[in-house]
Specification:
Strand order of the largest sheet: 1-4-3-2
Number of helices: 2
Oligomer: single chain
Strand content: 25-35%
Radius of gyration: 16 Å
Shape: globular
CATH topology: 2,3-Dihydroxybiphenyl 1,2-Dioxygenase, domain 1
Number of strands: 8
Number of domains: 1
Length: about 130
């Protein structure tokens, strides 16, 4: 039985650019960083960043996918979407869609240097 959600991994072409991007987006330094693998931890969740050209196992099934969007996006919560929009403008990261209201809340989309879509969302508290 699965006990918890553990991690997500993205495959990237340029580790340095990716680590710089996620350091800015998450406002956090990586827990570990190398040319092949870097990782950020937030509470019990791990975001792993894997270099596309450095698979240690030639038979790894993920190897064939390379980097870029493959139908999965990463989602991050923020306390205040308007404040985060100001922060993104300050660090010169372009919002590619939104803000818009989704079932999750007020949402914007940005794209990382490898074409991965990120959803950044302020949850809407439903009043009963």
């Amino acid at each position: 039985m699965i006990s918890a959600f553990g991690y997500s991994m993205i495959v990237v072409q340029n580790m340095q650019k990716s680590v710089e991007f996620y350091t800015k987006i998450l406002q956090k330094q990586p827990e570990f960083s190398s040319p092949r693998w870097s990782q950020f931890r937030m509470n019990n969740f791990l975001l792993g960043i894997h270099a596309a050209d450095s698979w240690s196992d030639p038979n790894d099934p993920l190897r064939a996918f390379g980097s870029g969007q493959k139908g999965i996006s990463l989602g991050f919560w923020v306390d205040n979407i308007e404040e985060y929009l100001k922060y993104l403008a300050k660090i010169k990261i372009k919002v590619v869609h939104g803000p818009r209201t989704t079932g999750l809340g007020n949402t914007i989309y940005v794209i990382d240097p490898n074409g991965h879509y990120l959803q950044i969302c302020q949850q809407v508290v439903k009043k009963e």
